Amino acid sequence: MPLSSVAANADEQAMPYYQSVGNECALFDQAFQQRLPMLLKGPTGCGKTRFVSHMAAKLGKPLYTVSCHDDLTAADLTGRYLLQGGETRWVDGPLTRAVREGGICYLDEVVEARKDVTVVLHPLTDDRRLLPLERTGELLEAPDDFMLVVSYNPGYQHILKSLKPSTRQRFVAMSFDFPPPAVERDIVARESGLEPDRCAALVNLAASLRAMKGQDLEEGVSTRLLVYCATLIGAGMPILEAARATLVEPLSDDADVQEGLMEAIQATFG
């Protein structure tokens, strides 16, 4: 095998695994090349974060990931003055580092952050591509290899936690969902090491449990949880025990709902 092929195979193995189901990789690549920000929408555990990690590695760019939450402020992204070694020094936040050095800054579940965060993002998501740092008096211009990516789960949206239309329209957007059954089977098998035939049964079960979303469940079974379940089964744990720990307990605290989930699982595996 040529050395170039060996190097390519090694790079592919080191890259975070992601199996595309459409044109999402090509769209992300074009958005990066054209210096456009991107918004990813989809349910929890459907592969949004893995997709971004995969694309960052594929493009050879550093990735700065921020998991957003209620207490996340603009200063957490941009930076702040800290006392170090007896003197006060400015320390860049992940967004500022990505703008200074180039790379992809990924804000996961951006709607969970405080409102002042989106205000900071606005100058970066139009043709200016600027990051004002009021504390230091700097006005940073994003380099060509900087990209801002944000994601959220529309299923959790409500009036107090949603992106304003004026913010949404600053992004190229993509919708994600759980992969088709054959693709999800291959993903679960690849990630867990469990045989594909046994993973297929888990994927079929997931389809049944996801049909309960909006009735008894707030959210359907994620691909991530299927991987966890398959991993435990592959390690020798009995199927029903693994399923309870990964497909029942994480989804609901309601005893009646848990009983219904276990009934569906027992109907599948006996």
From TrEMBL:
Keywords: ATP-binding, Nucleotide-binding. PANTHER family: DENITRIFICATION REGULATORY PROTEIN NIRQ (PTHR42759:SF7), MOXR FAMILY PROTEIN (PTHR42759). It comes from the Bacteria. The keyword Transferase does not apply. Gene3D superfamilies: P-loop containing nucleotide triphosphate hydrolases. The keyword ATP-binding applies. Residues 38-171 form the ATPase dynein-related AAA domain. This is CbbQ/NirQ/NorQ/GpvN family protein. Residues 184-267 form the CbbQ/NirQ/NorQ C-terminal domain. Belongs to the CbbQ/NirQ/NorQ/GpvN family. InterPro entries: ATPase_dyneun-rel_AAA, CbbQ/NirQ/NorQ/GpvN, CbbQ_C, P-loop_NTPase.
